[in-house]
Design a protein that fits this description.
Layout (H helix, E strand, L loop, with lengths): L1 E6 L10 H10 L2 E7 L3 H13 L3 E5 L15 H6 L5 E10 L7 H18 L3 E6 L2 H10 L4 E3 L6 H9 L3 E4 L9 H9 L5 E3 L21 H12 L3 H15 L3
Parallel strand pairs: 1-2, 2-3, 3-4, 4-5, 5-6, 6-7, 7-8
The structure holds zinc ion (ZN).
Zinc ion (ZN) binds next to loops.
């Protein structure tokens, strides 16, 4: 059974084809799909989707790029939405210094608050980190929790540190890109016991579908690549990753 721990299925690109996308994924063995919200609105949409389809679960949270000074920084809605049985994680949360540095401090504050909420609710976190490798690591180290570094993009050195702390690394379509040397090294060196698979759809479509809409069924291309790099059978990879999923998430 394959797992996709990170996708944004409420995106309008899926709107007209959602039944087919989900059916096709399930037919191809993707038996766990975590829809990740990026704010209150998309978290609600994710819960609605998950209550409509089997095998779908939800992460709720406030994404760093959605944080600005005008934003209502009250996070009490997370407690309310977390009552739904389909909610199994807090995400997508984290730090993103790529676009705008104005709110870096506020991003950190809200990231930490959401980790504390996750710990309180005994839920793992799904973490986004872009151009913020050191700050993300420092926070994940200081505020010990459990969870995934989604679409892992940092160094091998840092990957080893994360694994020491018990965190999982989310491996997505980037692994299939020809010039993605660092992430290939990470997959080679880090134990399969700490890897999870994800699409991050609609973004980061794996090769050979780059430029097209990303779909959960494409998880098989990421598994193929992990299998090639680690020189392990695809079925073994699939089973180990499913076990990792079960270790981290309580449905
Ligand atoms: Zn995402």
């Amino acid at each position: 059974m394959k797992v996709d721990t990170h996708i944004h299925l409420y995106d309008e690109k899926y709107e007209d084809i959602i039944d087919e996308v989900i059916k096709s994924a399930i037919d191809k063995g993707v038996k766990r799909i975590i829809v990740n919200g990026i704010d209150k609105n998309t978290s609600i949409k994710s819960i609605k989707l998950a209550n409509k389809y089997d095998y779908l679960y939800v992460a709720i949270g406030l994404h760093p790029s959605e944080i600005n000074s005008n934003e209502e920084n009250d996070l009490s809605w997370i407690y309310d939405l977390a009552k739904d049985d389909k909610v199994i994680a807090i995400g997508e949360i984290g730090l993103d210094y790529y676009w705008d540095k104005t709110y870096n401090d506020l991003q950190k504050e809200i990231f930490i608050k959401q980790i504390k909420i996750a710990n309180e609710l005994n839920l793992p976190v799904i973490v986004h980190s872009r151009d913020a490798h050191k700050d993300t690591f420092d926070i994940m180290k200081k505020y010990q929790t459990k969870g995934i570094l989604h679409c892992y993009q940092s160094s091998l050195e840092l990957a080893k540190e994360y694994v020491k702390l018990g965190y999982f690394l989310g491996i997505g379509g980037v692994l299939t890109f020809k010039n993605s040397k660092v992430i290939k090294d990470v997959v080679r060196e880090i134990s399969i016991d700490y890897l999870l698979t994800e699409t991050d759809g609609p973004y980061l479509t794996p090769s050979p579908f780059r430029g097209k809409l990303n779909r959960p069924e494409y998880i098989s291309y990421i598994i193929n690549e992990i299998s090639n790099i680690k020189n392990l059978d695809k079925d073994v990879i699939e089973e180990k990753i499913f076990n990792n999923y079960k270790r981290l998430f309580k449905e």
